[in-house]
TrEMBL record, chain A:
Pfam families: Thiolase_C_1. SUPFAM superfamilies: Thiolase-like. InterPro entries: Thiolase, Thiolase-like, Thiolase_C_2. Gene3D superfamilies: 3.40.47.10. It comes from Neoroseomonas eburnea. PANTHER family: ACETYL-COA C-ACETYLTRANSFERASE, NON-SPECIFIC LIPID-TRANSFER PROTEIN-LIKE 2. GO terms for molecular function: acetyl-CoA C-acyltransferase activity. Residues 246-374 form the Thiolase C-terminal domain. This is Thiolase family protein.
TrEMBL record, chain B:
It holds the Pfam family OB_ChsH2_C. Residues 59-122 form the ChsH2 C-terminal OB-fold domain. Residues 22-58 form the ChsH2 rubredoxin-like zinc ribbon domain. This is Zn-ribbon domain-containing OB-fold protein. Signal peptide: none annotated.
Length: 381, 141
């Protein structure tokens, strides 16, 4: 059995994104959840599955939303690859007949609460790094991921300006979005002038840390057709784990992420080719991670990500518009759930000024921890 | 850096699997796990050999020599304890034994950094009971 066309995204909901919500993470998630459920044309009582993100548990949703009969709960702990992996988990549970409508909420006080450098020290997936690398001064993702980017630059001639093109393009898209934290224009010169964090990553190569919540509802394909909005069908979906998943230092090929294993599975399941993809929402914790995924997904060859983005391919109006909402770099860091929400809007024709004309098929990815990957290909239903 | 005074950096919490590694550093030796089942050398320390699934290991002393695989130069203090070290270079190194290590690289200016640059390991005791490795330029093989 394949998960092809077994499930659909039927609802999306977002809170306002900010640097200081002034509210609890649970209250943010409940707001986004109610919006997603309403967007789907469902009632909270229709939700019979939930896949919560860290810090909040299934019981919180039963208690607050008044869910009478939750039949499925799970967690997908893949860091930033969790959200797309959760969709895979939800579609699998629905296809197995366990439940009908799965709520997947993400929310955080990522700016006003604990910051990333301190947060990762507590995560079990960072245990080896915590013992063997953090005491030597390699503490935060920017530092742990930078050697991947540096090696790519040394092997393939990739430049900081090419990474900057990703930041600039993403910012331009954020400016079309009414719910983006970053609202000032950015030029390549602004990127080049931004302070160095961990070479080659400058400040504008790094994603935001944000407060807010984004939630989606995944429903069975049959039921999805009767709901309020046109369903966004999941055509192909997969997760992939890199070699040496706990430490990048020991990875045989440092320029290859887990998504390189997942992408062929997702494309085969979907039965589409790269040229069929009208829009792509690519997890962008750092500019380089976008470039590496574009290569690992097969949109260009390994090492050609720099020239690919420099050509304008990922801009709105380009060959493959990427992160049309402004991404983690400029809209908000919602662990990539905002990427899924944006793809749904694009495929419904609800993306406003950032709408890719006639977008019918799109792709969304997740990237997490030390290189876990997830990818979904979806179509307008 | 002195061995006295308040040490305010992150410190490792050794496990039964890694304790010999940290004890080795205290004796200024870089020790690696060698599988008793198939002879594969692995790093970082972990309980099981991914090739033959043996849990028996012997600890072998590494040469301490290797070449740069990649690097980053950190300019931002992600922890208060590293503020006075900025900027510092973190190098990923291919050790002669076929595994990699990561440590701070000293005495190499940014413009000299390149893949394949020979380096060697040295050691410093940063506090009682904790010795850390760092890297310095090495001789070509």
């Amino acid at each position: 059995m394949s998960l092809r066309e077994k499930g659909a995204i039927t609802g999306v909901g977002e809170t306002a994104y900010s640097r200081e919500s002034g509210r609890s993470v649970l209250s943010l998630q409940l707001e986004a959840s109610l919006k997603a459920i309403e967007d789907a044309g469902l009632k909270p009582a229709d939700i019979d599955g939930v896949i919560p993100y860290s810090g909040v548990v299934a019981e919180d949703f039963i208690t607050n939303l008044g869910l009478p009969d939750l039949r499925f709960s799970a967690v997908t702990p893949l860091g930033g690859a969790s959200c797309v992996a959760a969709v895979q988990c939800a579609v699998a549970a629905i296809a197995a007949g366990i439940c009908n409508h799965v709520l997947i909420p993400v929310g955080r006080n990522g700016a006003s609460g604990g910051r990333i450098g301190m947060r990762v020290q507590q995560m079990p997936q960072f245990r080896l790094v915590g013992e063997f690398e953090m005491p030597l001064g390699a503490i935060a993702p920017a530092q742990l991921y930078a050697p991947m980017a540096r090696r790519h630059m040394e092997l393939y001639g990739t430049t900081s300006r090419q990474l900057g093109e990703i930041a600039v393009s993403t910012r331009a898209n954020a400016m079309l979005n009414g719910n983006a934290v970053m609202t000032k224009p950015m030029s390549i010169e602004d990127h080049q002038a931004s302070r160095m964090i961990s070479d080659p990553f400058r400040l504008f190569d790094c994603s935001l840390e944000s407060d807010g919540s984004c939630a989606i509802v995944v429903s069975g394909a049959e039921r999805a057709r009767d709901l309020r909005k046109p369903p966004v069908m999941v055509m192909g979906i997969a997760e992939g784990h890199p070699d040496s998943p706990s430490v990048i230092t020991q990875r045989p090929d440092m320029t290859r992420l887990g998504i390189a294993k997942a992408a062929p599975r997702a494309f085969e399941m979907a039965g589409v080719k790269h040229d069929d993809i009208d829009v792509a929402e690519i997890y962008d914790c750092f500019t380089y991670i976008v470039m590496c995924q574009l290569e690992d997904l097969g949109f260009c060859k390994k090492g050609e990500g720099g020239p690919f983005v420099e050509s304008g391919a990922i801009r709105l109006g380009g060959k493959l518009p990427v992160n049309t909402h402004g991404g983690l770099l400029s809209q908000a860091h919602m662990v990539g759930m905002n990427h899924i929400a944006e793809l749904v809007r694009q495929l419904r024709g609800e993306a406003g000024k950032a709408q890719v004309r006639d977008a019918e098929i799109g792709l969304v990815t997740g990237y997490g921890d030390m290189g876990d990957g997830s990818v979904a290909i979806m179509r307008r239903g | 850096m002195s061995a006295t005074g308040t040490y305010n950096k992150l410190v490792p919490e050794p496990t039964p699997h890694s304790a010999p590694y940290w004890e080795g550093l205290n004796r200024r030796k870089l020790l690696l796990q060698k599988c008793c089942g198939c002879g594969r050398i692995r790093h970082y320390p972990q309980p099981m050999c991914p090739s033959c699934h043996s849990t028996e290991v012997e600890w072998v002393e590494a040469s301490g020599r290797g070449v740069i695989h990649s690097w980053t130069i950190t300019h931002h203090a992600f922890h208060p304890g590293v503020r006075d070290d900025l900027p510092y270079t973190l190098a990923t190194v291919d050790l002669d034994e076929g595994v990699r290590m990561l440590a701070q690289l000293r005495a190499v200016p940014a413009e000299k950094l390149r893949i394949g640059l020979p380096v060697r390991v040295d050691y410093e005791t940063v506090k009682d009971g904790l010795t850390l490795p760092y890297l310095v330029p090495g001789e070509p093989a």
